[in-house]
Amino acid sequence: MQQFGELGFDRATIRGIAEAAGVSSGLVRHHFGSKQELRDACDAHLVKLMRGLSDQVEAGAGGNHVAAARIAVGPYQAYLARALVEGEAAPLFDEMVELSAQWLAARDTERSDPPAADAKVRAAVSTAMALSITVLHQHVSRALGVDVFSPEGDALLARALIDLYSHPMLSLEDARTALQHLK
User: Fold this and answer.
1) In a domain, 146, yes or no
2) Between 20 and 30 A from 31 (CA), which of 41, 93, 161, 173?
C-alpha cells in the first residue's frame, strides 16, 4: 500500500513493491497474480478493517472508538487518498457508506424528528465529507499549520471533529425552515 500511496497505481511497479516488502517480484506475482489483483487485495484488507471496527462499536466494546478508528486507518491514509483521487477504492467507499447507513438507520429510531433524507443518502454524503480530509490533507494541513497525518495534527483534527459533531450548526427549527425553503 505504501508504493501505491506514494507513487499512484500507474507508477507503482511489482518490482518496486517487492523491493519495498523485501521479497522477490516473483513471489508478489505468485500470491497476487497482477498489480490490479494486488490493489484489489489492498482494498479488501481495508474493507475487512472497517467491518472489524464497526463490529467493535456495535458490540459496545469499551474504549475511544474515534481514536481506535483513526489509529487503525492511520497507516493507510496515503494509499486511501491516492486511490480516491485516482477514482479507485470503490469497494472501500461503498462499504463505508453501507456501514454508515446501518449506523444512521439504527440511530434514527432515537431521533425526536424524522430524517430529511434516507439513511443511505446521508451516509454517502457523510462518508464523502469524512474522506475529504484524507484527499485534501495537504490543504487542511496548511490551513491548520500542522500535518494532519502527524500525531499532533491528528489530535488537533480529532478535537475539531468531535467539537463539530457534538454541537449542531443548526437548531431543529432552523433546519425545518431551511428544508421548507427547498421545496
Assistant:
1) no
2) 93
Model pLDDT for residues 76-96, shown as the tens digit of each residue:
888 888 888 888 888 888 988
Q: How far is CA 116 from CA 41, 122, 125, 172, 173, in A?
A: 37, 9, 13, 11, 13
Specify whether the CB–CB gap between 46 and 83 falls below 8 A: no
pLDDT recorded at residue 28: 94
Residue 141 near residue 153, CB atoms below 8 Å: yes
DSSP string, 104-127: HHHHHTT-SS--SS-HHHHHHHHH
Q: What is the DSSP letter of 74?
A: G
Cα 181 to Cα 112, 118, 170, 176, distances in angstroms: 21, 19, 15, 9
Residue 58 inside a domain? The answer is yes
Q: What's this model's pTM, rounded to 2 decimal places?
A: 0.78
pLDDT higher than 90, residue 58: no
- Domain extent, residue 117, equals 42-135
Q: How many domains does the chain have?
A: 1
- Residue 51 maps to a domain: yes
**What is the predicted pLDDT for the residue at 61?**
58
The verdict on residue 99 lying in a domain is yes
